C-alpha cells in the first residue's frame, strides 16, 4: 500500500509540473529578477527608460501569477510613474495585464497625476505557433484624475510576423515577432502600428513604433538583464 501511495504521489506531482510548464512565460521567472528597456526617438536619441522587477510569484493549482513593479523615467532620468502589473500562466496560456505595455514617454505629460488604469489581458502565444497566426485584440483605458479625461488605447490586427534572432546590449535572444495596429483616443484619434520581439523566459527584447504612414516614430531595446 505504501508503495502504491508513493507511486500515485509521484504521478500527481509530475502532472502538476507538466501543467505548469505547458505555459511558456514571456517574463523572467525568478523573483527578484530585474530588467530594463531603454526608449529611443526615431533618430536614435534616448528618450527615457523603464525599469522592471519581478516582485512576486504565486502558484495556485495550475495557475502561476507574476507581479512586476515598473518604474518609468524620462530622458533626464527623472521618475515619471511607478506602477504594478501582473502576468499569468494558466492552461497553456500566458497573458499580461496590458498596463505592462504603458509607454513612459507618452505618460510623461501626466507625471505627478493620479492615474486609474483599466486594462484587458494581452496574450502572448506559445513559441511553436506558426508565422501568420492571428491573435486576440487588447484594450486599455487610463483615467487621469486631476484633469478628468480618459485615454483609450485599442490594439487590433495582431499576428505572428516572424521568428528571428535579436542582439541587444543585454545579450542575444531567439525571438517571436508580433505586429499590431494601435489607436489612441485622447481628444483626437491617433493611429499607428508596432512591431515587438519577445523571447521566452525574458519577455520584450525590442519594440518599434510607426505612425499611420508606416514611418518609424520610436523604439525600445532591452539594455539590462539581471536574472536571479
Strands ordered across the widest β-sheet: 6-8-9-10-11-12-13-1-2-3-4-5-7
What is the arithmetic mean of pLDDT? 82
Q: What is the C-level CATH assignment?
A: Mainly Beta
Quickly count the domains: 1
Shape, per Cα inertia axes: globular
SSE blueprint and pairings:
Layout: H1 2-21, E1 34-41, E2 46-60, E3 63-74, E4 79-90, E5 93-97, H2 104-107, E6 115-119, E7 121-124, E8 138-144, E9 149-168, E10 171-186, E11 188-199, E12 203-211, E13 216-226
Antiparallel strand pairs: 1-2, 1-13, 2-3, 3-4, 4-5, 5-7, 6-8, 8-9, 9-10, 10-11, 11-12, 12-13
Describe the structure.
This protein is mainly beta and 228 residues long. The chain has one domain: YmcC-like fold. It has two helices and 13 strands. Strands 6-8-9-10-11-12-13-1-2-3-4-5-7 form a 13-stranded antiparallel beta sheet. A hairpin with a 2-residue loop joins strand 4 and strand 5. The longest helix has 20 residues. The chain starts with a helix and ends with a strand. The N terminus is likely disordered.
Structural descriptors:
globular; 228 residues; 13-stranded antiparallel β-sheet; mainly beta
Concise summary:
This protein has one domain (2-226): YmcC-like fold (Beta Barrel). 11% of the residues lie in helices and 60% in strands.
Amino acid at each position: 500500500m505504501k508503495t502504491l501511495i508513493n507511486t500515485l504521489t509521484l504521478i500527481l506531482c509530475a502532472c502538476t509540473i507538466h501543467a505548469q510548464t505547458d505555459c511558456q512565460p514571456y517574463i523572467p521567472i525568478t523573483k527578484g529578477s530585474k530588467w530594463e528597456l531603454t526608449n529611443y526617438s526615431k533618430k536614435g536619441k534616448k528618450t527615457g527608460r523603464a525599469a522592471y522587477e519581478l516582485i512576486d510569484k504565486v502558484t495556485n493549482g495550475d495557475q502561476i501569477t507574476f507581479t512586476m513593479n515598473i518604474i518609468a523615467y524620462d530622458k533626464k532620468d527623472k521618475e515619471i510613474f511607478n506602477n504594478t502589473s501582473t502576468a499569468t500562466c494558466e492552461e497553456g496560456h500566458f497573458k499580461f495585464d496590458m498596463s505592462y505595455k504603458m509607454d513612459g514617454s507618452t505618460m510623461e505629460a501626466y507625471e505627478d497625476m493620479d492615474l486609474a488604469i483599466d486594462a484587458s489581458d494581452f496574450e502572448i502565444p506559445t513559441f511553436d505557433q506558426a508565422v501568420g497566426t492571428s491573435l486576440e485584440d487588447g484594450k486599455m483605458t487610463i483615467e487621469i484624475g486631476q484633469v478628468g479625461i480618459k485615454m483609450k488605447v485599442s490594439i487590433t490586427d495582431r499576428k505572428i510576423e516572424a521568428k528571428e534572432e535579436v542582439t541587444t546590449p543585454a545579450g542575444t535572444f531567439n525571438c517571436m515577432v508580433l505586429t499590431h495596429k494601435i489607436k489612441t483616443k485622447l481628444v483626437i484619434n491617433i493611429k499607428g502600428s508596432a512591431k515587438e520581439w519577445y523571447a521566452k523566459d525574458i519577455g520584450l527584447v525590442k519594440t518599434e513604433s510607426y505612425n499611420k504612414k508606416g514611418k518609424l516614430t520610436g523604439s525600445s531595446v532591452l539594455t539590462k538583464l539581471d536574472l536571479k
